[in-house]
Amino acid sequence: MKFIKTLFTQTRIILITLLTVILLFTLTGEKVARFEQSGWDGREYREMAQTFSEKINGDSYNTYKIQRILPFALINTIFNIFGWDKSNTQIMTAMIVLCTLAVIVSLIYFFKTSNTLQLDTTLEIIAFSAIFYNYPILKHLGYYPFQTDIFAFMLGIMIFYFFIKRKKWLIVLTGIIGAFIWPTLLITSLALAFFSPKASPLICQKLLNRKNDILLILCKTGAMLIIPALCLYLYLRHGDLKALYAFNVATYDHIYILILSLIALSIYIYRTIKIFHFDIIYTIRDFFRQTGFSNFILLIAIYSSVYIIIHLLAKGESNFDLQALIVQTSLRAIAKPIVFLEAHFIYFGPIALLIIFLWKFYISYIAKYGYGFIFIIFSLIILSLNSESRYMITLLPFVSFPICLILEKYNLKKSAGWLFAFASIIISRFWLTINVPSIEQEFIAENFLEFPAQRYFMNSGSWQNWTTYFIFMTITIIYAFLIWYGYRHRWYTRPQKK
Predict the structure, then answer these.
(1) 3-class DSSP assignment, residue 498
(2) For the chain, first and last CA: distance in Å?
(3) In b/e form, how buried is each residue of 138-147, taking b as 16+ CB within 10 angstroms?
(4) C-beta of residue 22 within 8 angstroms of C-beta of residue 430
């Protein structure tokens, strides 16, 4: 009851009302113009919702589908209980209702988290905007409902809340449920639950003389060289996959673009890891000592049990495994110069720029949350190289809330919070019509890198053509400049009290 009362503040009512109005517009609006509004993967997910009870005991599904099956199995079970007709229209309605419920649960846990962290009004506006006012929630959810992104998003917020409340077994339970919605949720939740939550000496603690830390220098140099070298090797070896990962080089000499992309990738890796200062040997020993043998045994036992259950339910392995993900990420990282940074901005909004500007403070801040959170950050760094930004949707709360806590020291004006919300809503592109005449024909012809199909595919960095890449990169640079310039000229901060 006390929590419900906290929802009825003027700011929260405005935030929720804006979200509700936009979601009503998109959830009842246009749907992906392919396979009777279900989309590519969505066609298979819709079939799951219609035939799960029959197929799970027969041909079943491969491991890829089993790891995403839960929402559709739930719809199928409910329809069977009530004897409802499983027509495409009815299943679409059920999917929209389920997505709406996921948003509501996400809102509840967002405000519970905000209350726990005691965010002030301005910071709560920024956190809310970062998490809800973005392309995947305001546009993609309504346009392409037959995916598991919104449920993974919901579980990500729940796991973050359970983490700050130190609810170890609720983290584990949520991760086990997530194993049948989004594959990475299980391992990240187990890391958060069983790796020590005590303050970590890992990052920026100056435990050593940096000049003499030869091992750390070698590791950083190795990362700068090995990752781009791996990308180049996979690029040369898997030439047949270049078209799949948007190597649209018809207008540009791909050799020069490739060289520029490799250099940009090396610089990005250097800038990302340069602030890491720690004694490697000491940290490894401390990690094992603080985590403890029993926690390792529990982690392995739970992960192995879920892994066995998935393979018992599945019939056949997926073509998309860890090796395929590594190849995909490597090729996408160098498809166009730092396309992944631009892609994350157009997908998640201005929060993707804030973490770049505040990266040093962010790393220093989250170090106190222990090794589980450090594992999340290394996962974030690796996944950030993939321009298909949706892979990071479960990690959005782990970025947004700490960034807001860091912003507390800047004494931001309330108007800065609303400006951030406005900028987030604009870049979400909820207002942009995707389904124009002939787009379905272009989808069928698989002309994904040409307009009008680009009206949808440009929203993922891995499928942008050069025109949309340059347009969005320009917008990204403008947004970044306005954030930097506004900060330098104190547009967003209150005058310091004397």
Answers:
(1) coil
(2) 41
(3) bbbbbbbbbb
(4) yes
Q: In terms of Cα–Cα distance, which of 123, 133, 197 is closest to 160?
A: 197
What is the distance between the alpha carbons of residues 168 and 292, in angstroms, rounded to a whole number? 15
DSSP state of 387: S
Peptide linkage before 197 cis (omega within 30 of 0): no
Q: How far apart are CA 345 and CA 172, in angstroms?
A: 31
AA letter at 68: R
Length of the chain: 498
**How many alpha carbons fall within 13 Å on the CB side of residue 249?**
15
Q: Number of helices and strands (H, E) in the chain? A: 26, 0
Is residue 220 within 8 Å of residue 423, measured between CB atoms? Answer: no
| Contacts by residues 112-121 (CB-CB < 8 Å, ≥ 24 positions apart) | 112/3, 112/161, 113/157, 113/160, 113/161, 113/164, 113/397, 113/401, 115/3, 115/6, 116/161, 116/164, 116/165, 117/164, 117/401, 117/404, 117/405, 119/404, 119/405, 120/408, 121/11, 121/414, 121/417
pLDDT(246) > 60 = no
pLDDT digits (tens, 9 = 90+) for 6-53: 777 899 999 999 999 999 999 999 999 999 999 999 999 999 999 999
127: CB partners within 8 A, 6+ apart: 110, 114, 119, 400, 401, 404
Tokens for 397? 């709360």
Spatial separation of the C-alpha atoms in residues 263 and 52, rounded to whole Å: 48
CA atoms of 466 and 322, how far apart (whole Å): 29
Tokens 């990071």, residue located:
392
Q: Identify any residues that bridge with 412 across adjacent strands, giving them in sequence order.
A: 493
Q: What sections of 274-411 are H helices per DSSP? A: 280-291, 293-313, 322-333, 339-348, 351-357, 359-366, 371-383, 396-407
Interior angle at CA 128, CA 29 and CA 26, nearest 5: 0
The pLDDT tens digits of the residues spanning 352-409 come to 999 999 998 998 888 888 889 989 998 999 999 999 999 999 999 999 999 999 999 8
Nearest-Å Rg of the Cα atoms of the chain is 23
Distance separating alpha carbons of residues 128 and 400, to the nearest angstrom: 9
Phi first, then psi, for residue 298 (nearest 5°) are: -65, -45
User: Average per-residue pLDDT in the chain?
Assistant: 89
